[in-house]
Amino acid sequence: MKKYFPFLILILFASCKSKALLVEGSSASNTIAAQKIIENHYNNKTDFSTLYIKAGAKYQDDKQSQNVQAEIRIKKDEKILVSIKILGFTMAKALITPTSVQYYEKIGNKYFEGDYAGLSKWLGTDLDFQKVQNMLMGKAMDDLHKGNYAVSIMEKLYKLQSNVDGSADKSFYFESDNFLIKRQEINQQAFDRTLQVFYPDYKKYDEMILPLSLAINARQKESKTNIEIEYKNITFNEELSFPYNVPEGYERIYIDKI
Description:
14-stranded mixed beta sheet, 4 helices, mainly beta, 16 strands
């Protein structure tokens, strides 16, 4: 596995640090209809054109642990650029659009170009641009309007659970005031594979409510990967550039060889 590839891929599947946290709802106590939870979740506006995030991140797997800085640039519904930096130097970049995923890494001089079909097959779950954008903004990765869900209360949160073709269990957990997502997970028992994303806290801006941090836990059989991302600085609606050029002499890699 290449050094930063799993970090970037898990972000692709991924506010100023302040005491002014959004006060979330009291504990969920009464079961309500799934449709009501879904409607309330999507009533939270996302009124912006561009979003720029500076973040600190910690990556840990079975072999290594590393702290890095990340810059995330989003042009809503069009493209996302993620840059990984150490001591101010860019070590890796990923550029994603609704049709393509591109990535390069300076350690090893490798790059990847492809679509979501190969990544989805490799990850074992459907991946697309909207899921990536939603995850980074604290939204349900799936379009909840398109699923059927059982409702329950677990850990004082509303839980929506869906089973997709008997192969993947998907669960979404919401607090009871603004119906912000606190946790979402995909469990594929056949492959002994689990992906969980946690959102400890949020902050309200004029444009939208954003998470202050997120934690991504991925497990496949005996292998575990954990990523913690803390949003340190947020700006909305600035004119952003999305510079991405693979340096000369880099070797192209393919999913089946990663």
